[in-house]
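Subject — a protein and its fold
Encoding — discrete vocabulary of local shapes:
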Amino acid sequence: MNTEPAGGGSALSPYKGVPATKWLAVTVKLLEKHPLTPEFVPIVQQAWKDIFATRIGSKGYRIGPDIKLSPQIMGNYLHELIPLIVQDLHPGEWCRGRGAHDKDLVCLTNPRLSIEIKTSSHPTQIFGNRSYGQPPSSTSDIGKKGKSGYYLAINFEKFSKEGSLPKISQVRFGWLDHSDWIAQRAPTGQQAHVNPRADAAKLVRLYPANRVRRDPGRH
């Protein structure tokens, strides 16, 4: 595999020339080789736990019992905490992204291993802004992070009226290419979602524990 430029530019796809029926096998090999794969579930759970341990304001208001945050804010917390936890666990090897050209979690020793984090309160899907579903441009994408590469996908529950604390519902990890994203067709649509076939074969569920499907082409 070629190494991705440190600035987060385009990455050579490990799926290039591979039929869709073989994508899952490629994904499994990628995850076996990535050093953080075994650590993601406890890291995500720790970040989620830390959110509810947070106290806000002089009165020490608690997230959950006192303040019910929107899914967007809860996702932002995860985006901030997960890279910090990894950075503390692996100083000098990993760090949080520092600018628009960086992935959310940057591998200092091998930028190709860097990771984009996507969170959503949707039960199963993740989303990006509309640019994820647009063809890459050699001019407009200069200085911006590439859309292809490793993705950590986290789904979580919304706050309920019953008062119980929401939980992490799903953690997946894998590789997505720019072409795997589909922009909303409506001119005013601002979201992009992942092609169902890529979603099934290129993101492997780490939590809850999942037996890997062997024939994603039938999904």
